[in-house]
Design a protein that fits this description.
This protein is of the alpha/beta class and about 260 residues long. The protein has nine helices and six strands; from the N terminus they run H-E-H-E-E-H-E-H-E-H-E-H-H-H-H. The strands form two sheets. It has a four-stranded parallel β-sheet with strand order 2-1-5-6, sandwiched between helices. Strands 3-4 form a two-stranded parallel ribbon. Helix 4 packs across helix 5. The relative contact order is 0.18.
Length: about 260
């Protein structure tokens, strides 16, 4: 059985004089998440817990330094996160979020790492995160730095879904469903409550209705179903993701060996 690594090098543990030497050719791994309702069975921290655990393991597997996570997200939407109709969600407006991310990225670019890896855990962050990175590259802020950014679910293969989730509702509707519940049962079982809500009518992708009927689009904030979730499934999914990231990153930046 593979073991997760919890003690990895962290950027925040460096002293100021250590930074220039530590950054030369280094990989920085930055988890970006959110504080969002995840039904009656999962904590608000799901969208931060999953990318943070994955980022930590990526550092253990590929080297580098773990950056502190970004815990506040873009706005939760009804058809992919339940929206503001359930207590607990904290968000930043889209334009502010892009500006904030851009400023963070600008600061990280000045450190001069070899590679920046961004692991996203909140569905609505994705487009805004990519836009912020794109704006930075246009400004040549990462002229000599490789930037790799992804949402964790983008690395789940069709074969894995076919084997483990034959009735998959789509990632937009998998909010607080089988995959997130299983991952949290594996990563943080102490914060997973016993309820397993199910919603038989997941919202369609790319459709927005106003006004929103919160009771129709979800069951207590759950858009699909958490029934059947298990720590075993979460463990298999977690290591599937780790292997996907390692394959995605390939060789360390600057490594020309064959």
């Amino acid at each position: 059985m593979r073991q997760r690594t919890t003690n990895v090098p962290r950027y925040g543990d460096l002293t100021s004089p250590q930074v220039p030497g530590a950054m030369a050719g280094a990989t920085l791994v930055w988890p970006v998440g959110g504080l969002e309702q995840h039904g009656p069975h999962l904590p608000l921290s799901v969208d931060m817990d999953i990318p943070e655990a994955l980022a930590r393991q990526v550092v253990a597997e590929t080297g580098g330094l773990l950056l502190p996570g970004q815990p506040v997200s873009a706005r939760s939407l009804p058809q992919s996160g339940g929206g503001p109709h359930f207590p607990g969600t904290v968000h930043i407006g889209g334009s502010t979020f892009i500006d904030y991310l851009t400023d963070c990225l600008r600061g990280l670019s000045r450190l001069g790492p070899g590679r920046l890896v961004v692991v996203n855990g909140h569905y609505e962050n994705e487009g805004l995160l990519f836009e912020a990175i794109d704006g930075c590259t246009e400004a040549a802020l990462f002229a000599d730095v490789e930037v790799v950014a992804f949402s964790w679910w983008s690395l789940v293969t069709d074969d894995w879904l076919g084997e483990h989730l034959p009735r998959f509702p789509g990632w937009h509707a998998e909010h607080a469903g089988l995959t997130e519940t299983s991952l949290m049962m594996y990563l943080r079982p102490d914060v997973v409550r016993p309820e397993r809500p199910s919603h038989t009518g997941p919202p369609p992708a790319g459709v927005y209705r106003h006004p929103v009927d919160a009771a129709e689009i979800s069951n207590q904030g759950v858009l699909s179903s958490a029934v059947g979730a298990s720590a075993e499934l979460g463990e298999r999914l977690f290591w599937h993701l780790v292997d996907g990231v390692v394959e995605l990153l390939g060789k360390p930046p600057g490594d020309t060996c064959t």
